[in-house]
Amino acid sequence: MAFVADNTLDFTQASEAYERALALAPGNAEVLRLSGIFAAYMGRLDAGVVAARRAVVLDPLARSSHGALAETLYAARRYKEAVAAYAEVISLDPDFKETYGSRGLAYYGLGDLQSARVSCETKLDYWASQRCLAVIYDKLGRHADAEAVLAKWKAVVSEAGGAYQYATVYAQWGNLAKALEILDTALRLQDPGLEYLKTDPLLDPLRKEPRFQAIERALKFPN
Q1: What are the pLDDT digits (tens) for 171-203?
Q2: pTM of the model
Q3: Domain 1-96 falls in which CATH fold?
Q4: Which of 59, 134, 156, 173 is the most exposed place for a label (fewest CB within 10 A)?
């Protein structure tokens, strides 16, 4: 129930469902993983990290436990710890493609562009790596390469289909008008990716924009 409500952007209903799940199963690693990630996305960063760490203690050999911890740490801007948590995911499952792009963005948060590039180039056929490279290549002064990666990604996933993720790229490129335009589309389409909007570091360039603040209000994140 919580995941469904979460995925339909009914964050108040999702929050209530996660609270019920935690009350019923406080020692369930899966409940802790999902509720921890949700808490971090809603801006309750410390609570999210604590829940995810508890999931790791309870289920230390699960890739998903370390992945949840990495996500919460990344949202909290604790990039060095996030990189370490993503490394644990990779050690448990080297073929889990999404991790390499996510780890690349954590390196990016640290300002380590070369490590970010290497991580994101590891699994080039996955969208998370392509998004990461679209950001990293631009920051390395390789904007033509960034454009090429983005075009390759859009050939597979339309701008409407990946609206939220595309907005993060344009925000990092400094094209705030385009990023906001795409976020408006994401809101109209009720893109599930909007769950990340409140705490996503990639959207930080937009946070002072009145249009962004209006979108955030429209999503009715719980306090």
Answers
A1: 999 999 999 999 999 999 999 999 999 999 999
A2: 0.94
A3: 1.25.40
A4: 156
